[in-house]
Specification:
Number of domains: 1
Mean pLDDT: 89
CATH topology: de novo design (two linked rop proteins)
Order of helices and strands: EEHHHHEEHEHH
Shape: elongated
Strand order of the largest sheet: 4-3-5
Strand content: 5-15%
Structural class: alpha+beta
Low-confidence stretches: none
Distance between the termini: 19 Å
Number of helices: 7
CATH architecture: Up-down Bundle
Radius of gyration: 19 Å
CATH superfamily: Recombination protein O, C-terminal domain
C-alpha cells in the first residue's frame, strides 16, 4: 500500500465475504496489529472516481500504476511526490487525456529524482542535438536517426521538461513518450 510517505505491507484474508483489492484503487482502511505476522487491514472502503467505469481509462490507469511497484519494491520511506502526483492524476483523469497526464507525471517524478538528462547530446553518437530528438528508455536523449525512431520537436520537449505541460506535443508524440514511460522508472 502506498501512502503519502510510506510503502507498507499488510495482510488481508480473502474469503467469501471479502472482495479482492485491485491495484491502483484509492481506499480507506483500518490497521489491526497481529502479533509477529504482518498487520491486517480491515473495514476497507473503496473511494470511487467518475472514470472507474470507463474501461479504456481504467486499463491505462492500471498500466501506469504497474510501473511504480518495481520502482518502489524495496522501499519503506518515500517522498510525498509519488502519492501526491498519483492523487493529482486521479482527480484529473476524467478531464484530460490520461496518456498526457502519465507523460507529465512521469517527467515530474524523474525530475524530482534528479534523473532527467540534458537534451543537448545524443547518447549513441555523443554529438549535439539540434531541432529534433528521440528517446531511449527513461527519457535519455538521442538523435532520431541513431535510434531509428520518429523525431519529436526538441523545443516542445524542453517546454514539457520545464513546465510539466504537454500542450505543445501532438497526439502521436504523446503516444511515443507514453510508451517510453510505460517501460518504467
Amino acid at each position: 500500500m502506498l501512502s503519502r510517505d510510506r510503502v507498507e505491507k499488510y495482510y488481508r484474508f480473502y474469503g467469501a465475504r471479502h472482495s479482492i483489492l485491485q491495484v491502483g484503487y484509492l481506499i480507506d482502511f483500518e490497521v489491526e496489529e497481529s502479533g509477529s505476522f504482518l498487520p491486517r487491514i480491515r473495514s476497507i472502503s473503496h473511494i470511487g472516481f467518475k472514470w472507474l467505469y470507463n474501461r479504456e481509462k481504467l486499463f491505462i490507469w492500471h498500466r501506469f500504476i504497474s510501473i511504480f511497484e518495481p520502482h518502489l519494491r524495496d522501499v519503506t520511506q518515500i517522498d510525498p511526490i509519488y502519492y501526491e502526483t498519483l492523487l493529482e492524476c486521479v482527480k484529473k483523469w476524467h478531464l484530460q487525456s490520461p496518456k498526457r497526464l502519465i507523460v507529465e507525471s512521469y517527467i515530474k517524478i524523474l525530475k524530482h529524482e534528479g534523473r532527467l538528462q540534458p537534451l543537448d547530446k545524443c547518447l549513441i553518437c555523443n554529438q549535439s542535438i539540434d531541432k529534433n530528438i528521440a528517446f531511449v528508455g527513461k527519457f535519455i536523449p538521442a538523435h532520431p536517426s541513431c535510434v531509428n525512431q520518429h523525431p519529436i520537436r526538441k523545443e516542445s520537449v524542453e517546454y514539457l521538461l520545464n513546465s510539466f505541460s504537454s500542450i505543445w506535443l501532438n497526439d502521436e508524440e504523446i503516444e511515443r513518450l507514453y510508451l517510453i514511460a510505460l517501460k518504467g522508472f
